[in-house]
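Progress against Task 2.4 (sequence-to-structure conversion) is shown through the following example record, which the project officer requested during the mid-term review.
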Amino acid sequence: MQLPSDADSTGRNLGKEEIEILKKVIESGTLNCTKGTAVKEFEKRFAHKYGVIFCRTTTSGTASIHTAIAAINPEPGDEIITTPITDMGAITPIIYQTAIPVFADVDPETYNITAETIAPKITNRTKAIIVTHLFGNPCDMDPVMDLARQYNLPVIEDACQAYLAEYKGRLIGTIGDIGCFSLQQGKHMTTGEGGIVISKNGTYSRHMWLFVDKAWGYGDPKPDHYFLALNYRMTELQGAVAIAQLDKVDRVVENRINTAQMFTNLISDVPGVSPPKVTAHSKHVYWKYPLRIDDKIIEGGVDLFAAKLKEKGIFCAPRYIQKPAFMCEILRDRKTFGNSHFPFEGGSRKNDPPVVYDPSEYPGTFDALSHVLVLPWNEFYTEEHVGYIVDSIKETAKALRR
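Structure tokens generated for the chain above:
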């Protein structure tokens, strides 16, 4: 069976609604958001949906993370705590803002960092905490927020994979100080590339609004370029698609949850194969579906299991990102600005101990990556598709059972 794919129209909810709004934008002749209306309309609608005072679009999820970190305004050599299981685009903005990523270990069953793993990483140089709601499964936010308030640290929520996810009835992205979203091709909403930042904090909101557009104070009595910033403006073409996508996202999320829960029920008794542990009192929105493969029961573990599923047309990702972020060359070898190794080295860190990424401090991370098999998931899966994946998993598990 050929499964719907979020790489093309078989698995993406794009069509006449997007074309209709795009047509209006193109006929207007205005494709730049500073003069157009589509991006502004989307920002207003998204802010209303999330119940926040501020929403600003960006060119990518990475740009949204960068914009949020810029609002925190770290000093050179400051530290920002985050997860080692995430896309590098959520980490490099830390370095571009002259701060250093410090990694907390993850819970190997939820794949998320926790208050317990964050706490030992806090130092006098810690500037902020970034929590990533991986695969659409919310972090356990109350303990994280209690810890952050104890140390007066802002919390950035990376909700790029977690549209409309909830924690104790609250929308993910609204619990911390800043929420970040991605509109990349495979997300619950897409404009191909794109991002969103939201906040209820007036100070952060002002800084982010400026940062996205070179810190130029449009509308101010005497505008100027107030600080170092980039051009991360979204185009009106993306804004048009985003408006239509926002009208569909509730159904998209609902469909993903329904098929994922159906799948969970059907594989719950398969030896050696475990569904994800959903954070208590939370709504998981299944950007992807992470399975845990027990190599004590399944011969060849996650790699052989994935190979067998791929033979059946299920294009899954064993180990997700393959290795923790801190093992990638950029961080391992400090390949940053020229040969300076800045901000890891230099005057801004001369009185501080070096930041060391010791693999022995991350047992949960290595456990998670060595057992996770990430299944593709999208809103066009039907009961038939789910049944095919279930049958394939049961056959594979039986064939590889020790």
